Amino acid sequence: MSFHSSPLIAWTDKGLYCEAGGFYIDPHRAVDLAVITHAHSDHARRGSKQYITVKSGVELLKTRLGKKIEVESYDYRENFWLGGVQVSFHSAGHILGSSQVRVEYRGEVWVASGDYKRDADPSCEPFETVTCDTFITEATFGTPGFVWEKNLEHGRMIFEWWQKNASLGKNSVLFGYSLGKAQRILAELYPLAERPVLIHHTIHELTECYRREGRELAPTRDLKEKINELIFDQRLEGELLLAPPSALAEWKNHLGRYATAFASGWMSGSGAGFGRGKYDHGFVMSDHADWNDLNLTIEQTNAKRVFVQHRDGALISHLKKKGIEAHSVETLVSHQFAQLGGMNLSLL
Question: Is residue 133 domain-resident?
Fold first, then answer.
């Protein structure tokens, strides 16, 4: 058996496109039918006529794109048909409601990973390996310098940092992205935090979406409300503030003494340079797979052909040395795809 002469999922100026099913996956621009892997803004954009996503991600998608968007949803592993293509969502472990998209057509199976991680995370569904002929993988941390220890007690580490700062009369300002990272931090703190975490307004509604999906999170309070209660020259003291990295300037005058930290995979290995000198502390806590887990996932899919998005050079070279056919996702256009050979090596 061979692949089609053109790719089942092609790379276009609007993003990944499945012509046989008439849909795009995480399109860059407005389209008629958008299959969405998750609600981050680089994957879910406004303006499409119809969206399809996994059920646990619907509220987040509407919060980001508008309550009136037309959304169809399915459970994980539930098969549905678009044109003559069988499609299903499988957990990516990235954030709540994040998915890999499995596409099957005439005996050929492709999986578009979206963003994914394999680390344990109480705020979202765990990662699921999906076997396939062709795997389109992210590679945000696709270089050997990004490897971190698994199963760290992030919540306890953050809590102890908070308590140490509080004992010195300092506030603790922890930066994390508003969707996904912030809620993971709150979920990790859930068994430990007795006083509310003060959260930036961009985090509030997204956090409520998680709670409505049954996720247990540490108690929170809107940071602006707390600041508005301060009188005269009163300052916050001993609090944990959770905010996106760009927010400090908004309320710096109300903090008094404080220490800062950033929770991110960029705090690991060669990525430490991204935060060197900017933060007092770093927590290696990522919503993406590190180098080892990227390779483990690709191996477990049994895919003989891999297309790589983001920081693709090192991973492509490494996979080729292991005997896996690997290419940049930009080669998923008909004329280049045909030059790759077309044959499904796993079926020979």
Answer: yes
